[in-house]
Amino acid sequence: MSYQHQYVDGTRIHFPLGKVVCIGRNYAEHAKELDNPIPSEPLLFIKPGSCVVPLEGGFKIPTERGSVHYEAEIAVLLGKPLSTKPTEEEVLDAISGYAPALDLTLRDLQSKLKEKGLPWELCKSFDGACVLPPFVSAGAFEDVKDIGIRLTINGEVRQDGNSAMMLNPIVPMIQHMAACFSLQAGDVILTGTPAGVGPFEVGDELVLELPGVSRFESRVL
Ligand code: ZN
Fold it and tell me: Where is the Fumarylacetoacetase-like C-terminal domain (predicted)?
């Protein structure tokens, strides 16, 4: 099933899917669980739009390339371009909506790439590596510094975080990203994952939510 940006009420969002700009190690407890140092500067990487699939109805994972880890993350959809040095107001004005997303990672492969100092595309950019549900309009959020993110698998809460725990909060993070490369309407920002990552198995039933805002059920096919 091909992906198209939309809001939870089913309204289609007209700008096309762009790139997915991600930050690594943005929650201290998650950096610690994978034995990674906390970076002195934001650790950024990009997933291509081609890897995005919709959450609803279930999604496939690669089954012959080692462990496929889930990373539940707050996704931010941009509805306006940002570049160089946007102000806090410009960043907030450019945000169209928020959703809970999955940044899927071939973890065994990533460990090998990290050992050799190689780039992460092979473990982060495969088809299906970014799973997105519909967005809730930004107007529904009072405080960008207090957005929850929760992933429940087979009835057990595995990840439960909040944007208040981010080492780089959402607005300064996007300001930094825009200074590194132009952001466009239709781009998605993945804001890092809280602790609790682990492998998906085919058949897992999951609930992915921004608690109190949006909630989606899905399964690993
Ligand atoms: Zn991630």
Answer: 19-220
Residue 208's nearest CA partner among 51, 75, 62, 19 is 75
Alpha carbon of 34 to ligand 1 centroid (Å): 12
Q: How far is the CA of 73 from the centre of ligand 1 (A)?
A: 7
Q: Where are the domains of the chain?
A: 20-219
Q: Which residues contact 40 (CB under 8 A, 6 or more apart)?
A: none
- How much distance in Å is there from the Cα of 84 to the middle of ligand 1? 24
CATH class of the structural domain 20-219: alpha beta
| Contact of 74 with 100, CB cutoff 8 Å | yes
- Closest by CA to 4, choosing from 186, 190, 127, is 186
Q: Report the percentage of the chain scoring pLDDT > 90.
A: 92
Ligand 1 (single-atom ion) residues, CB below 5 Å: 71, 103, 193
